[in-house]
Amino acid sequence: MSEEQHKAENRARPTTDEFRAFVAADWAPRSTARPAQAEAAPYAAQRRAAVSAAFPGERLVIPAGGLKVRSNDCDYIFRPHSAFAHLTGLGSDREPDAVLVLEPLDDGSHESILYFRPLAGRDSEEFFGDSRYGEFWVGARPGLADIEAELALSARHIDEFTDAVGKDVGAIRIRIVRDADRELTASVDAVRAGVAETDEPSESEALREADEELAHFLSTLRLVKDEWEIRQMRDAIRATANGFDAVIADLPKALERGRGERWVEGVFGLHARHQGNGVGYDSICASGDHANTLHWIKNTGDITDGDLLLLDAGVEVDSLFTADVTRTLPVNGRFSDAQRRVYDAVYAAQEAGLAAVKPGAKFSDVHDAAIRVIAEHLHAWGLLPEGVDVETTLDKEHGQHHRRWMVHGTSHHLGLDVHDCALARREEYMGAELTPGMILTVEPGLYFKADDLLVPQELRGIGVRIEDDVLVTQDGCENLSAALPRTSTDVEAWIARLAPKP
Ligand SMILES: [Mn+2]
């Protein structure tokens, strides 16, 4: 019995044979209709083929991960590991404890096998008695034939996994994505070591390195998106734009009710949950000086007349692809002169960054272009120290004074994870050439903290970021989030349209 089950045991009711027979009987037969093949299935198959080609003759284990306890016998909503989602096409809340195995075949290719927990019979204790997996508690799951039809791969019961993964151990190299499921990884480690517990440190180091090569490959496999992934991103961004519209329409209420940041978080979250799986990361709803705390997700503050509201939020669609958009909004509908000055500087920096997004340019060129404009404004406003000009501050070894007011990078890859392709090495990321199909953010900002004595009084407490999601095309880029107004005057018109003054 797991600890979670044990904790719920004090509320369990004993059952009799008579009850078990009663609860198992007289249900309509289950449907024999199989689900249609998922739209994602052929794309997932192509990705698995790329993995297969890179690791011929090896057994590759990609777990979905298990349910995570929130407290006692309550779990968080399940989200499969991104590598698993990418290689199966399975999205929100599917399939806890499942494991994808690429099993090597004699011809050098692999068979894709999904080990998972299929629907239990109505004559089982699980059917009515298991609050974590039972049909009475969490609903029916697919059967083996359902999964095979949906995903176009082989499916087996999870109970067969342990024997299958250990077959011909020693003769076949096994690699596993380690961070998806700790327990399962420990069991596979034990299988590989051929012992019940831990093995020699040097050997386990070699195993770990082999596993890291697999994780790295799977992460970089997502650098260039296929057409289906690009469609998911368009959907996520469209839903995100709707969420921003809803927040703006509700700004008067956010000001009225107090704890306005929470109101904004809730309104965006409502639309994220309604149109997609939810938010792709905790929304940053930062009003006034809170905008200068880069990851302000507490969202406990009021929103008051005259504030700028920095909203950094993205809808994650059912396939788990997420948008990541930021707009900075004058909550009363008009930028003050100082706010507009900062906003327009950030806008100019973003324009420079967007112009740098094209095939053949380096990823880091986008930041270099944007940060130069930031530095130019800081210099023109007299904020850089005496004797530090634009070239000096941009010097990577001796300068960097501008980073006091924009310490973060301008771009990251975006996709299944908000910070996608996180295991790519520096030369594959910052140092790599932009390639058609890549999707990245362009998000410069300027942050003048309320207690920053180096900046003039009128700029203190102003924080601005503008963030868009950009697809690299054959000859430049497409701003996928262009539907959200971006210039200071367009932002004012947007607010006037959706939250007109009475
Ligand atoms: Mn971002």
Tell me what the structure shows.
The structure is a single chain. The protein folds into two domains: 218 residues, 3-Layer(aba) Sandwich (Creatine Amidinohydrolase, Chain A, domain 1); 272 residues, Alpha-Beta Complex (Creatine Amidinohydrolase). The strands form six sheets. Strands 6-5-4-1-7 form a five-stranded mixed beta sheet, with helices on both faces. It has a three-stranded antiparallel beta sheet with strand order 9-10-12. Strands 13-16-17 form a three-stranded antiparallel beta sheet. α12 crosses α13. It is built from 17 helices and 17 strands. With 502 residues, the chain is an alpha+beta fold. 38% of the residues lie in helices and 14% in strands. A hairpin with a 4-residue loop joins β16 and β17. It binds manganese (II) ion. The site of manganese (II) ion has 5 residues, from loops.
